[in-house]
Amino acid sequence: MLQPPLIVLMTDFGLEDAFVGVMKGVIASIRRDSHVIDLTHAISAQNVRQAAFHLERSIGYFPDETIYVCVVDPGVGTARRAIGVEAGPYRFIAPDNGLLTPIFKRWPNARCHELTNAAYQLPNKSATFHGRDLFSPAAAHLAAGVPLDDFGPAIDVAKCQRIELFRNRPLDDGNGWQGEVITTDHFGNLITTLEGSMNADGGNWTITVGNAPPLPIVRTYGEVQPGQPLAYTGSSGMIEIAIRNGNANKELGVGEGDAVEMIRT
Q1: Which residues, other chains included, contact 49 with Cβ-Cβ below 8 Å and sequence gap of 6+?
Q2: What is the pTM of this model?
Q3: Which helix (H) or strand (E) holds 86?
Q4: Are residues 153 and 213 in the same domain?
Q5: What is d(CA 230, CA 240) in angstroms, rounded to the nearest whole number?
Q6: In the listed set 159, 181, 216, which residue is the last one of a domain according to the structure?
């Protein structure tokens, strides 16, 4: 018997409450042999741009046929659509709120259907927990072999919602770039919008953020002393700011949305 497709969950629910566990229970009730992986449940509350970033940076590490359930949904219970998408070798279940912008950008010929067929939803759908009542059942039924066309009417991908993704702008003097902090990881490291590839020319660049001194871009934590701040290219390919053996978020007083600059010296 063939293994069912992998189901990957990404939400802003956190793990303190029962929400994620209930979603997994719904999936197992429909397709007991489903293999579910948690990408993250630590997206900042209602932060659709942050979710789009993490999705874009993660999809290439999962096998073909993976089904992504992305529930960062500030419009839950409103007229916003719920959609299922086939793009490249993957499928996505998400609200139509721009979260899938990088997917549509990468695969402009993606197929999209609105999730309206009540046969693939839980009865008595809640106005505030579509992750349980709508998105999880859709993913489980997809994994069980239900074709996307059966979930509801087709939607022109060009009419799906888009958001402005993270962008850097050149400094006024042309000597660098201004970006921002996308998110803070578990260790307090600051992940920025600045791409590590921007440092590929071998020039002398420094990173400035908050009240920290200008930081040279190094390869690894071991190139500075314990307690010292540093900048480096992280595993996501973005420039990150950290304090060796410390917490940059707390010690520098810098976090999500704060400005960061990359300056040629």
Answers
A1: 98, 163, 164, 165, 166, 182
A2: 0.91
A3: strand 82-87
A4: no
A5: 8
A6: 159
